[in-house]
């Protein structure tokens, strides 16, 4: 077994001092001589043609330097997300269009010498609309003869042709079943609610080069789509991103403002910054895809699943964004997690005149597994089985083929369920005597999940890294991976230090500049450690080989006799040792040859697993649900930084609690107007709402595709927590909910309905 010096230790993050002292500079903190402030005029109708825009009064306002409308910008059709075309995203957006498709869409932008002047100028722009019929629900959008959101696509308001996942014979499977369950499930519209609103600053240089400072997860993708839409070669677009205040997947997209910011800067000849207000992160940002799922499964008396049939419909909103990718991932997810030989699942995605749904932590799987795992709990009750035992019986395991087409490694899901049962004393909880006194009822629930590290095969990803050793033995990693605030560059530095055999403190990381670091596809799909860490390890291994060769020459031994650990180079079996610094020191005034390693890595797919055991308290007088404790058990292959891993799990649980009990971005279904685009009316769980969390990390199914077997952990915790809460609520009060969020008034109504039906 490998003894690690740095891997598996919670070293001090390399961005810690900057963040705790406030010296870390985010895009909105940066100042530029002559900076102008850009603001967006957003539509107050959901679907209309723009007949006329009069910006003359705004242009006459002192301090206003430019106004742009659809007639002033290039008419280039593009995808809202900057991912490669292999992601099958919809090219359905213009920089600005003569048509608006949702309430809050950009119709014009202003650049002025202050934010206040820019805001005042927006009120002086007059827009005349020709109102068009709108569709706000999937049912309306799919009705024959429904108004079209787009005059393109596969037909009607479908974002893409339906996706089908099929194997075996479903009808035969249902004929073999002793129990058949079917139900309808629904997921709401939570928003990412990252701390740092969307922001970018653009500046042109005299040679026609564009520099973009931006908060994004995909700096090279931003460079590519900015170059494509603005008609520039890649060497004329430089994208800079340093510190980020979160993204949760949504900051993979471009939000129109980036193009408009660049065009305002070019028109005025001055740097321009455009920053969303908090309200704009709701109106012009991205949400999770609302979803409706019909699910039918057949079971034998022993719990074996004989058939699974499902339809899942995602609401994309006004534009495609990641709708095709989410649909593909969510549809195939319904064919996984629990073994079944006979499956037929159909997924679709539909345009509506509502805010845009995009990438969000859990990427289509949150909705799919919410339905699947709750129905498994229902089946256990109907069969008179323990839900944990039913899930263990059917859990995917070693050799099963995952949705990506790859055989699974290990028994990760089974390991998680079994360990969680031990941790919480599940057998005793199942047989406990219920306390029916007072208004509060307690219950326990279990939710399970599996999630891939990488987006393969939907996107053929690639990671690149360069590692350089300096003449004093210190090391620099050049990486294009983005840091969303998760500590990824600390983890990568740990990996490089461990691979070479130097101390963590001797490794620095250069990132965030598309002119200086190697190309990277972006931070998403839980692949940053799996792919970015692995390629950094590969590049570091090249440097180590060069270091070992030089040390072996100096010590007059074979390279196989050299060992490097904690910055010390030793000859095995002897007491001879020198520091890495001494190996690299100049000889006769000439430094060591430049030691540089570079690597490219194309990952396929690995899967992490989790089982969440949750206790809730339900007040039957108020309907309030409180999560009391969570015991999340995650199998992640290899833990690189324990505190960072636990932090990801705790953050995902907090988001998942919000989605399940509180969060829902509300849209008026008569006008399309957003009703709660702020933190006053949009309820999220705060620190005082958080339960006790006791995280268990397992390393039982390492994947050779990751560094020392490490797999992703970013998205997993937000998936399992939702069904665990819903199942715990059922255990507490005997009422089943098939939707999220589960609100107090709905709990009360369900209890009253049950009592009325019992009379």
Task: Describe the model.
The protein is α+β, with helices and mostly antiparallel strands and 759 residues long. Among the domains are: 16-23 and 462-601, Aldehyde oxidase/xanthine dehydrogenase, molybdopterin binding domain (Aldehyde Oxidoreductase, domain 4), CATH 3.30.365.10; 410-451 and 607-759, Aldehyde Oxidoreductase, domain 4 (2-Layer Sandwich), CATH 3.30.365. 28% of the residues lie in helices and 24% in strands. α14 (488-500) packs parallel to α15 (528-555). The protein is globular.
How would you characterize the largest beta sheet?
Answer: 7 strands, mixed
Question: How big is the Rg?
Answer: 27 Å
Strand order of the largest sheet: 3-7-1-14-11-12-13
Mean pLDDT: 95
Number of H- or I-type helical stretches: 19
| Number of distinct beta strands | 30
Keywords for this entry:
single chain, Aldehyde Oxidoreductase, domain 4, seven-stranded mixed beta sheet, alpha+beta, 759 residues
In short:
By secondary structure, this protein is of the alpha+beta class.
SSE blueprint:
Blueprint: H1 16-21, E1 36-42, E2 48-54, H2 56-60, E3 64-68, E4 78-79, E5 91-93, E6 99-100, E7 106-112, H3 115-122, E8 126-131, H4 138-142, E9 163-167, H5 170-175, E10 179-187, E11 199-204, E12 210-214, H6 219-230, E13 237-240, H7 257-268, E14 272-275, H8 278-283, E15 291-299, E16 305-317, H9 323-333, E17 343-351, H10 365-383, H11 387-394, H12 412-424, H13 426-430, E18 440-453, E19 463-469, E20 475-479, H14 488-500, E21 507-510, H15 528-555, E22 562-565, E23 568-571, E24 577-579, H16 580-584, E25 595-601, E26 606-619, E27 625-635, H17 642-661, E28 692-693, E29 696-698, H18 716-733, E30 739-740, H19 744-758
Parallel strand pairs: 1-14, 10-30, 12-13, 16-17, 20-21, 27-28, 27-29
Antiparallel strand pairs: 1-7, 2-6, 2-8, 3-7, 4-5, 9-17, 10-15, 11-12, 11-14, 15-16, 18-26, 19-20, 19-25, 22-23, 23-24, 26-27
Helix pairs in contact: 9-10, 10-18, 14-15, 17-18
């Amino acid at each position: 077994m490998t003894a690690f010096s740095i891997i598996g230790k919670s070293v001090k993050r390399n961005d810690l001092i900057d963040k705790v002292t406030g010296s870390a500079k985010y895009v909105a903190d940066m100042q530029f001589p002559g900076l102008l402030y850009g603001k967006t005029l957003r539509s107050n109708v959901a679907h209309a043609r723009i007949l006329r825009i009069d910006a003359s009064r705004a242009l006459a306002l002192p301090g206003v330097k430019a106004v742009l409308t659809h007639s002033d910008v290039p008419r280039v059709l593009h995808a809202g997300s900057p991912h490669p075309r292999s992601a099958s995203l919809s090219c359905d957006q213009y920089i600005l269009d003569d048509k608006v498709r949702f309430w809050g869409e950009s119709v014009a932008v202003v650049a002025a010498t202050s934010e206040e002047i820019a805001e005042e100028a927006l009120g002086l722009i007059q827009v005349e609309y020709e109102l068009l019929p709108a569709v706000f629900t999937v049912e309306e959008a799919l009705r024959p003869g429904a108004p079209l959101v787009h005059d393109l696509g596969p037909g009607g308001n479908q974002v893409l042709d339906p996706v089908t996942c099929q194997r075996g014979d479903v009808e035969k499977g249902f004929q073999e079943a002793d129990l058949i369950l079917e139900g309808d499930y629904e997921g709401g519209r939570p928003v990412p609610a990252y701390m740092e609103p969307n922001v970018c600053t653009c500046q042109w240089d005299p040679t026609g080069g564009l520099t973009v400072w931006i908060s994004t997860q995909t700096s090279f993708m931003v460079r590519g789509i900015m170059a494509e839409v603005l008609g520039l070669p890649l060497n004329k677009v430089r994208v800079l991103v340093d510190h980020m205040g979160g993204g949760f997947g949504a900051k993979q997209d471009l939000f129109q403002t980036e193009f408009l910011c660049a065009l305002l800067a070019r028109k005025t000849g001055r740097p321009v910054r455009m920053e969303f207000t908090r309200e704009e992160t709701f109106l012009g940002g991205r949400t999770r895809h609302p979803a409706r799922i019909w699910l039918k499964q057949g079971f034998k008396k022993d719990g074996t699943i004989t058939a699974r049939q499902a339809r899942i419909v995602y609401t994309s909103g006004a534009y495609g964004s990641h709708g095709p990718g989410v649909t593909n991932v969510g549809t195939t997810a319904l064919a996984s997690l629990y073994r079944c030989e006979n499956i037929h699942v159909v997924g679709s995605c539909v345009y509506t005149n509502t805010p845009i749904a995009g990438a969000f932590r859990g990427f289509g799987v949150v909705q799919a597994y919410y339905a699947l795992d709750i129905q498994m709990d229902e089946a256990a009750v109907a069969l008179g089985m323990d839900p944990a035992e039913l899930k263990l019986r059917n859990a995917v395991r070693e050799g099963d083929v995952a949705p990506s087409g790859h055989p699974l490694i290990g028994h990760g899901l089974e390991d998680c369920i079994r360990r969680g049962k031990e941790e919480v004393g599940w057998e005793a909880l199942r047989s406990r005597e219920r306390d029916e006194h007072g208004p509060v009822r307690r219950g326990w629930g279990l939710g399970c999940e599996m999630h891939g590290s990488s987006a393969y095969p939907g996107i053929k990803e690639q990671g690149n890294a360069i590692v350089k050793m300096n003449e004093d033995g210190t090391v620099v990693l050049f990486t294009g991976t983005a840091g969303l605030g998760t500590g990824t560059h600390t983890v990568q530095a740990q990996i490089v230090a461990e691979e070479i055999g130097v101390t963590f403190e001797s490794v620095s990381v250069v990132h965030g500049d598309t002119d200086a670091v190697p190309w990277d596809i972006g931070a998403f799909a839980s692949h940053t450690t799996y792919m970015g860490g692995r390629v950094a390890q590969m590049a570091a291994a090249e440097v180590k080989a060069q270091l070992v060769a030089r040390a072996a020459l100096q010590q007059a031994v074979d390279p196989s006799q050299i060992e490097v650990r904690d910055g010390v180079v030793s000859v095995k079996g002897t007491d001879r040792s020198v520091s890495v610094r001494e190996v690299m020191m100049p000889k006769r005034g000439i430094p060591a040859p430049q030691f540089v390693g570079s690597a490219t890595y194309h990952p396929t797919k690995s899967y992490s697993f989790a089982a969440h055991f949750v206790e809730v308290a339900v007040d039957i007088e108020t309907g309030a649900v409180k999560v009391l404790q969570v015991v999340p058990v995650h199998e992640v292959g290899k833990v690189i930084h324990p505190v960072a891993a636990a932090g990801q799990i705790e953050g995902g649980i907090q988001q998942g609690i919000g989605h399940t009990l509180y969060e829902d971005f509300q849209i008026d279904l008569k006008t399309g107007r957003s009703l709660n685009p702020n933190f006053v009316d949009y309820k999220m769980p705060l620190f005082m709402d958080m339960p006790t969390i006791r995280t268990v990390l397992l390393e039982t199914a390492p994947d050779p595709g990751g560094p020392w077997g490490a797999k992703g952990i970013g998205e997993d915790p937000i998936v399992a927590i939702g069904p665990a809460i819903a199942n715990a609520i059922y255990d507490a009060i005997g009422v089943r909910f098939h939707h999220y969020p589960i609100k107090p008034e709905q709990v009360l109504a369900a209890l009253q309905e049950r009592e009325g039906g019992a009379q």
